[in-house]
Amino acid sequence: MKNVKKLLSMLLASLMVISLGACGNGDTGSSTSGSGNVSTSATSGSTSGSGSEEVYGEGYVLRVGMNCSAAPFGWTQDDDSNGAWPIDGTNQYVCGYDVQVARLICETYGWDLQIIKTDWDGLIPGVVSGKLDCCISTLGVTEERLQSVDFSDYYWNNGCVMVVRKDSPYVDATSINDFDGAKITTQIATIWEPLVQQIPNVQAEPCLSGLPELFVAVSSGKVDGIITGLSEAQSACMSNPDLTWVTFDEGEGFDVELSALCAGIPIAKGNTELKDKINAVIATLDHDTQMEMMTTALNAQPLSDGTGEALQAEETEGM
Predict the structure, then answer these.
(1) I want to staple 159 with a disulfide (CB 3.0 to 4.6 A). Which of 13, 87, 255, 316 is the partner?
(2) For residue range 127-158, what is the model confidence (pLDDT) as tens digits?
(3) Which domains does the chain have, with CATH numbers?
């Protein structure tokens, strides 16, 4: 009888060890998923475990948030021409400079690219919540955004300009003071939004959600001008020959940090593994390569300036 009791005790002890081991593995997986760095639904081909192993292995599905309506960085089209990529959950594709960057990152590491169309005000929250691994949507690096996410190195530097009609009284402006009392708007949830109030006596119109709406607003005369980036302005004026953009003399433009004009890739706080991998790819994008990629994007977009001539990406201050 004593031998039976001893055997039962040994069996119970073994079962407890196995049970504790299983709970420990479950906790580790839960911690990794909840960190915001990677979710269990997106770890295809990755290694899970203690954190010392590489998470982003070959075959990893990189979930990238993208606005998909801000040419030349990203626009929506119906086919995969010019290197366009499928938009997750739709029968449409997105093409542009940001798509080139996303594809290059994934091709470098053998990852699968999943582009998730996301509104501007949902990009940062998507990364914070862990629904997105990162956003490649020409987001400027600001102190406010850095409270929530980390950023990669810059992958593009955009100038800050004002788009007006060619017959506008503001077309020869050289300072934001020349727009005193003008009706101005810009895109919601972008770095441009707070700049509207820097214009003296501005008649601030409600911010709009998409660039196409903005260019229609200024073309129709609803507003006198819109604040946007140089690349976006150059792109829009291809298909809107009645529009042009205004740049400002040094010291006469908007008070904005250069970092806010430089696009970075938001990544979850503390996710150094993904940040380092992305930065390694960005390091290969020297100035000439960036300009070549932007020129490709400008000429690939389904817009035309009516001349049939190819466009060249323009230099921006600080590039």
Answers:
(1) 316
(2) 999 999 999 999 999 999 999 999 999 999 88
(3) 41-155+265-285 (3.40.190.10), 160-257 (3.40.190.10)
